[in-house]
Amino acid sequence: MAGPETGAPPDAGVGAVEDDDLATQLGAMLRAFWATPQRNRLIALAVALVTVIGATAWAQIRLNAWNQPFYNALTARNLPAFVTQLGVFAMLAGVLLVLNVAQTWLNQMTRLVLRQGLVGDLFGEWLAPLRAFRLANAGPIGTNPDQRLAADAQHLTDLTTDLGIGLLQSTLLLASFIGVLWELSDGMGATIFGVVVNPPGYMVWCALVYAGTASLLSYLVGRPLIRLDAEHYAREADLRFELVRVSEGVEAIAMYGGEAAERGRLDATFGTVLAISRRIVSAVTRLTWVTAGYGWFTIVAPILVAMPSYFAGKMSFGELMMVVGAFNQVQQSLRWYVDNFSAIADWRATLLRVAAFRKAVIAMDRLGQSTGRFTLTEGAGTGIRIADLCIAGPVGTVRLDPATLDLKPGDRVLIGGGHGEGKTLFFRALIGLWPWGSGTIERPRRERIMFLPARAYLPTGTLRACLTYPQSETAFDDAAIAAALTDVGLQRLVPQLGKFHRWERHLSENEKHCLAFARAILQRPDWVVIDDALNFIERGARQRIESIFMTRLTDMGVINIGHDGGRPGFYTRQVTLTVDAAGPKFTPASGAS
Length: 593
Description:
The chain is of the alpha/beta class. It has 20 helices and 14 strands. Helix 2 (about 40-75) packs antiparallel against helix 3 (about 80-125), helix 5 (about 145-185) packs across helix 13 (about 340-365) and helix 10 runs antiparallel to helix 11.
């Protein structure tokens, strides 16, 4: 939406929320998870994972200790001892197999529960009153919310689970094996340039220096991936939006013969995806030089640092293999950062998008705090009173002439004005979507007023659900629903009440607007407020609807914000909207909070 007629809220500086540091974003997401109904399940799963991973670490320590007698039996060609150690291996492998299966199940369940909690929280924040509308008009942060609510949320929970479990497992293994490796390093050392180096925990220090060097190189080389991944997700969302737009407009595109033009737009959007993907390929390739090189050298690294002691006769071959096994376990733990840097960059980029979106949604409540607001009150009465209302819009102040209106149910009011005179802005002010300005609006409770926008909205579902929206599908019986459809000339749809369909694509524009009025006839609110929707209805159908309001629904108030064109005598009052270009405005600069 753009332009003064739409009255779109300006960007309230929400784009800056993506500048938060990692600690701030993590803190916000952790508080959100803590408040979800899934909190206790997550805690139980975390306890179970710690238990399973701890048991796995213990079993791996036992397996590493098994190396010494097994390889010594091989060296001594001792067949009975060899067979005995095979039996020990079978038991340890069986235990590890059970633990691995349990860990896999816990991993998948944690993903599921994390996603349930995150998406539930995002849905709740996004669909809080007025937030989704304001966010949609708040600049780049509000574009393609489906990408952040669906794909990004799922990807974040998957990465969080995998990286979290991997980090926990590496930490427990490091804590378990670093002591083992320290003890095995007793008496080990090396001669460097004629100097004997024999510090306590020799192999541990070698592992720390080796892993620390690789981690630093991985960070320096792979850091650009964080920004590139975030940009990649944004461009993929743009492509997805363009594909949906073309899919929904195929009929109009075919009528205009615009396939080539649309292909050009899609190619251009896809080109941006390919461009950022190529940059990611280059960045990942550079990072692979570090991670892959580190991985290959790790095969011989523990043997190289332990060889001086082995050739000096200070350890047997079995002891050497036990040292190598412990060194590799410590390396496996310490190299977690190196092996997962690409995934960490991906996780960081996804966290940035989801956390920024959530913060932007909440920030919508503070939009325009520095700008004055008119007073909108909901009462138990059925009348509407508007007094001295001035709506601060992008191009000036929207006012009513006369300035004070006292309306009661049964009044049928035309509020008109020329093009660009703020009709949609006034419509949104009555709802409460645009609260900036001065004056007062007193109206009945929201559930007693039905607002009909210029673009009719039909939810996906059965036709019955479209008629009873936003109430329950069972709130009205089929006879009443059929009568409402017949009133607006849609009796042909009565046999399809239970049919599930995307009705907004199945019906014509005229039929969609007629169905919206059938919804009002069925639900009988005190007031129907129309944003020029009557002018989108064919003349015969419009006259039929106006007759119903003038005969059977005389106790229902009608406010039509739009152009004239109805039957003579339909409106009991007419009011004019004007825009004062010199009056107070609500611009992006003054509206930003």
